[in-house]
Each structure stands twice: as C-alpha cells, then as structure tokens.
Amino acid sequence: MSYMSQEGYDRLVAELKQLESVERPKASAAIAEAADKGDLSENSEYDAAKEAQRHLEAKINEMKLTIAQAKIVDMSRLSDEAVQIMSTVEMTNMANNSKMKYTIVSETEANLKQGKISIHTPIAQGLLNKKVGDVVEIKIPRGTIKLRVDKISINL
Description:
Helix content: 25-40%
Family: Belongs to the GreA/GreB family.
Distance between the termini: 22 Å
CATH superfamily of the largest domain: Transcription elongation factor, GreA/GreB, C-terminal domain
Radius of gyration: 22 Å
Mean pLDDT: 90
Low-confidence stretches: none
GO molecular function: DNA binding; RNA polymerase binding; translation elongation factor activity
CATH architecture of the largest domain: Roll
Number of domains: 2
Shape: elongated
CATH topology of the largest domain: Chitinase A, domain 3
Number of strands: 7
Strand content: 25-35%
Protein name: Transcription elongation factor GreA
Domain Transcription elongation factor GreA/GreB N-terminal: 3-72
Domain Transcription elongation factor GreA/GreB C-terminal: 80-153
Largest sheet: 5 strands, mixed
Number of helices: 3
C-alpha cells in the first residue's frame, strides 16, 4: 500500500492516461514504421522500437499497480503533534546549526527540489513519530546526522 495526497494521486492518474492514450500509440506507430523497412532480423530500428515499447508497458503496469494500491491520506485527520507522512518538518542540524525543511511524502510524490522526501528515506524514517524539541541521530550514507525537530506542520 502506498499512502499519498489527493494531488499526488491525481497527478499519477493523469500521467498514466497520457502514457496510455498518447505514448502507447506513438510506440505502436514507431514499430509499424520500422517493420515496413523490410527484413526484421537485421532491423535495429525495429528492435529499438520494440524495446522502447517494452519499457513503456512496464512503466504503465507499474503505475497501474501503484494506483491500485494507493491510499489517499485524509489531510484533515492529520496532526502536527508528531512527525508522520505529509508532515512538513523544520529542523536544525546540530553539527553546524544549519536549518532544513522537508515534507515527508510517498515514494511517487518525492521531489527533492520541492523539499519533498520519500517516507522511505533514512531521514524520514528517523523523524517519524518525533515531536517538537526531540533530537534524533539518523544514520545516512555519509555517516550519522543529529537533528533537532523545531516545527511540525501540515499543509492542507
């Protein structure tokens, strides 16, 4: 099961619709065009088009599975008492006093440029169920980081 916001779910459904209604016909047309060029045993264009279609179908199937297993989070029922999925957490790195702010989201909604990290990342896992004022040590690929939770909010 994958927890996500309504916005993330709607975006995923729209992307799936685009892949099925636009990209799939393009892939089929590319295969047909390559097949018209003759001998398929030595037709690298045909092989490439078939490979692209396989990747597209795999992506479509993966997205369908994610959508089927999605659980929309009722944002109105979330609390800012402790860190959970959909929480925006402001924290301080205790080693250098730098401030960080992340929103914890589902894997499909993660986007570091937007400050959204997957619930499966070490930082998100280490922050889950922590409260304002808690200091937590989290093992990350480059070692251990010590963070203090300064503020928890839910952006509806």
